[in-house]
């Protein structure tokens, strides 16, 4: 059954309610059609899928994230074991109260993985632009501040 192109409403295939066209998302594939289920039903279905598949979704997200560094989960776990679960700089074990893993530290120019750092150390290197000369100046500054 074809929908009247002049119609201002459409029936949702999930809840069966007639709703305004603004309640339906456009297809992302470029076709000029609206989804058959309304935004509310699609959102509820996506949330339910996430509730049913949290572990699977987290595993997929982790694998994708590590693939960006050219690593597998097994390689990450091996590197974590070699570092005894500690940050490569401050040797903290806790990755942070709201984080479960140590972030992957990498050279932004080459993409080469250097190790695993806690969030604080990883951010510190990033804020200093991975600049060794700037890090030396920071050390010199701190050492000079101690003697004052």
Find the count of extended strands (DSSP E, 2+ residues): 4
The mean pLDDT is 87
Uncertain segments are none
Provide the domain count. 2
- The oligomeric state of the chains shown is single chain
Measured distance between first and last alpha carbons: 84 Å
Total number of helices:
5
Structural class: mainly alpha
Q: How would you sum up the global shape?
A: elongated
Could you give the order of the helices and strands?
Answer: EEHHHEEHH
CATH superfamily of the largest domain: His-Me finger endonucleases
Q: What is the CATH domain class of the largest domain?
A: Alpha Beta
Strand order, main sheet: write it out.
Answer: 1-2
Going by CATH, the architecture of the largest domain would be 3-Layer(aba) Sandwich
Q: What share of the residues lie within helices?
A: 40-55%
Tell me the strand percentage band. 5-15%
Largest β-sheet summary: 2 strands, antiparallel
Report on the architecture of this protein.
The protein is mostly helical and 148 residues long. The chain folds into two domains: 9-52, Wheat Germ Agglutinin (Isolectin 2), domain 1 (2-Layer Sandwich), CATH 3.30.60; 54-147, His-Me finger endonuclease fold (3-Layer(aba) Sandwich). Helices cover 43% and strands 9% of the residues. It contains five helices and four strands. It has helices at 39-52, 54-67, 73-82, 119-127, 132-147; strands spanning 9-11, 18-20, 104-106, 113-116. A two-stranded antiparallel sheet has the order 1-2. Strands 3-4 form a two-stranded antiparallel ribbon. A hairpin with a 6-residue loop joins strand 1 (9-11) and strand 2 (18-20). The longest helix has 16 residues, at 132-147. It is elongated, with a radius of gyration of 25 Å.
